[in-house]
Amino acid sequence: MIALRRDLHAHPELGFEEVRTSAIVAEQLEQAGIAVHRGLGKTGVVGTLKVGNGTRRIALRADMDALAMPELAERDYGSTVPNTMHACGHDGHTVMLLAAARHLARTRNFSGTVHFVFQPAEEGRGGAKAMIDDGFFELFPVDAAYGLHNMPGLTTDEMAVVAGPQLASSDSWEVVFRGIGTHGAKPHLGRDAVTAAGQFLLALHTIVARRVDPLQPAVVSACAVSAGDFKALNVIPDEVRIGGTARAYSAAVRDQLEDEIGLLARGVAATFGIEAEYEFLRRIPPVVNDADATRRALAAAQAATGRTVVTDFPPSTAGDDFAFFGSAVPGAYVWLGNGPAVDGALHHNSRYDFNDDAIVTGARYWTALVEQELR
């Protein structure tokens, strides 16, 4: 499995392009005698293993895609694909679930149905939703869904399992301020969208500071601005385009952020006598762990590690589209240690690498979860 993980690392594929990866996954599952469904959500793979007469059905999800960024670290199994690398450990996630699936197919020490879900395109391209839109829950009805992600800063035999919010919603927004362009020396003859945009950017951060309940975490960030031309620095442009991200842990705050950004944009536009066009793009809901599913995951983590499980781990403002599975059925998303958070070990870093020492712990966790939940 270490050799396979490093092979996947050397041949990363972006979301919905995981042709080689999904073929390897399907082959590994079929070799173990597991029924395989290919092509769900374009490149997704689902392996189904039914043992005994148990009626409970669960889904275990691993993501397969890489990121569009260069790998800068020198390693024997470094990425062979330009500007593409496994910088978040999805190669490790894939291998851990494969290892558990093959082991469970051999031992068959459970009674019920487990679906091994190998999801494409977690990194912002909508793989979970694509699988669900393709009929995942109709083809594979489940009573609960489980996800796992590596976490630098925890040791490789350490896990964190916490009920409630784990990952924030991940949404995008865009505002276009439309004024009347004019000569930069005669601003009174136009309507200045650039100055309006500046006011908007300054006021944007008051949404979290002054509008959202201080006890409710939230993030609003402007991440892109486009206006004018540096070859025409005596021209005030007609429009300014601004875009960014919004994050929240609850549906109510998520709704509030959508409303507040729009109110601010339109208010600033009215102040400057210009127009504002606003769009809020809902991408991924928050990941909120169900209490009962979390209890089951905690017991499995204790069995897998043989040590105390971290139960007060802070939530992350990152997002994960496992949320689409976990919002449809009870779900739990847990953290597995990836070793010290040093030397480029952080997610989405060009020198990141999944820690192979975590493979056994992750495979044991998945196995224990199935054997305990499907007794």
From TrEMBL:
InterPro entries recorded: Amidohydrolase, Bact_exopeptidase_dim_dom, Peptidase_M20, Peptidase_M20_dimer
Transmembrane segments: none
Keywords: Hydrolase
Protein name: M20 family metallopeptidase
Boundaries of every Peptidase M20 dimerisation domain copy: 171-261
Top-level taxon: Bacteria
Pfam families to which the protein is assigned, alphabetical: M20_dimer, Peptidase_M20
SUPFAM superfamilies reported for this sequence: Bacterial exopeptidase dimerisation domain, Zn-dependent exopeptidases
Entry coiled-coil feature ranges: none
